[in-house]
UniProtKB/TrEMBL annotation:
GO terms for molecular function: magnesium ion binding; terpene synthase activity. It holds the Pfam family Terpene_synth. Signal peptide: none annotated. It comes from Cannabis sativa. Its cofactor is Mg(2+). The keyword Ribosomal protein does not apply. Residues 209-402 form the Terpene synthase N-terminal domain. Keywords: Magnesium. PANTHER family: (E,E)-GERANYLLINALOOL SYNTHASE, ENT-COPALYL DIPHOSPHATE SYNTHASE, CHLOROPLASTIC. Pathway: Secondary metabolite biosynthesis; terpenoid biosynthesis. It comes from the Eukaryota. This is Terpene synthase N-terminal domain-containing protein. The keyword rRNA-binding does not apply.
Length: 417
């Protein structure tokens, strides 16, 4: 490429990005959301009501058939090392079960099981054992998927790693005992992997949101529908698949780990991504337009997160806090009037504060963005000083246990940090 042609080439690339990425934010922001192998596999498991021998959502099954990696697993690699993560273990088990349920992809099933029993998978378990820390989401999801896979595949999973697996199962029992004693119901956000004795149809229907989802989780809602055949669940799932089928021309449909998502969060993540790449000067007009849209909604809610304790999950809470942290930092950087109270409510609400501290490994990305937001503190803003201390403490704990690499919500959008 000749030097003289470089500016023209850059201008062409910038225009292409403006036409594709930024224009799609107004048309369909979900086109920028990454699919989740685990949740897509659960939708692929749902049988058609009128033809039980066929999947209801064939596009989701097609996605599973077309997204196995060359190493045999499904899911996203760690950004730094390129190695599979704990999320890949649960996603691969879910995809293998979905394929076996419909008797397709036998070679892919074998390859997936090879990964589950590979040195890479065992390394993940050994590292977790060495660190002495089991992420709560993994302690709940992994045992449930192992049990389901063993039931469907009629084989024993990770037999030679029984000591590590037993520790995870034991940790799950401790979580169940604690949460049931406290009469918490957020465990229903993991409905798809809960033993049937832990829930009933009445409780599931009671916890459905107005639009039919269970904690905005596609996988949990898929199981809720299979357990109850509730029409609201069905409508939610059909709406979800239709929304993401618009992103595809070949009937290969992958769904995210939570839906619906906050469109302002998607916009903030795009701005954050562009600025951290050092490209903001090329998209100044587009960034300003997006921030104006975000600010209108931001001042309406005044930074307050209204929620019922009985209705939230780690995913929805983490994403909301992430949005608040990004909004405060980006809006203040661009001269908008925002106040510490817009994010300080995190510490004022004891339920939320305690929940974050108890599940800090799932909030590492959010705490990093909250910490960055406090970089923009003005003199005398003591609330931001407290938030800085709080976020730094949890980040230090996350670093010690490697939590940033075990959080399944890190891959929801292109990039959060």
């Amino acid at each position: 490429m000749e030097f003289q042609s470089l500016p023209q080439t850059q201008a062409k690339l910038i225009n292409e990005i403006k036409e594709t990425m930024f224009s799609s934010l107004d048309i369909n922001p979900y086109s920028l959301v990454s699919p989740c192998a685990y949740d897509t596999a659960w939708l692929a498991m749902i049988p058609h009501p009128n033809q039980p021998s066929k999947p209801m959502f064939e596009g989701c099954l097609s996605w599973v058939l077309n997204n196995q990696t060359e190493h045999g697993f499904w899911g996203n690699c760690d950004d730094q090392s390129g190695m599979p993560t704990l999320e890949c273990l649960t996603a691969t088990l879910a995809c293998v079960v979905a394929l076996r349920k419909w008797n397709v992809g036998s070679s892919m099933i074998s390859k997936g099981l090879e990964f589950i029993h590979s040195s890479n998978a065992k390394r993940l378990l050994k590292e977790m054992k060495k660190e002495g820390f089991i992420p709560q989401w993994f302690a709940i999801v992994f045992p449930g998927m192992v049990e389901l896979a063993e039931e469907v595949l009629k084989i024993q999973i990770l037999k030679d790693q029984s000591v590590f697996v037993s520790d995870i199962f034991y940790h799950r029992q401790l979580i169940f005992k604690k949460e049931l004693h406290n009469k918490e119901t957020y465990l229903l956000s993991y409905l798809e992997v809960l033993p049937s004795s832990y829930f009933n149809e009445e409780l599931i229907i009671k916890k459905l949101c107005e639009k039919g989802s269970l904690f905005q989780s596609p996988s949990a809602t898929a199981q809720a529908f299979m357990a109850t055949e509730n029409s609201k669940c069905l409508h939610y799932l059909q709406t979800l698949v239709h929304k993401f089928s618009n992103n595809n021309n070949n009937n290969i449909i992958g769904v995210p780990t939570t839906y619906p998502m906050d469109k302002d969060l998607i916009k903030l993540c795009i701005i954050n991504y562009v600025e951290r790449l050092g490209l903001a000067e090329h998209f100044a007009i587009e960034i300003e337009q997006l921030l104006q849209q975000v600010y209108k909604n931001y001042v309406k809610c005044d930074g307050e997160f209204y929620y019922e304790k009985s209705y939230y999950s780690l995913a929805t809470l983490e994403l909301h806090l992430l949005k608040e942290s990004l909004a405060f930092r980006l809006l203040r950087m661009h001269g908008y009037k925002v106040f510490p109270s817009n994010i300080y409510w995190i510490l004022k609400n004891e339920d939320i504060k305690n929940h974050i501290e108890s599940n800090y490994e799932c909030f590492s990305v959010t705490m990093l963005n909250l910490y960055r937001a406090t970089d923009l503190a003005f003199h005398g803003e003591f609330e931001l000083d407290e938030l800085r201390i709080f976020s730094r403490k949890l980040l230090q704990k996350s670093i010690l246990v490697g939590a940033p690499h075990t959080n399944p919500f890190n891959k929801l959008i292109i990039i959060f940090i």
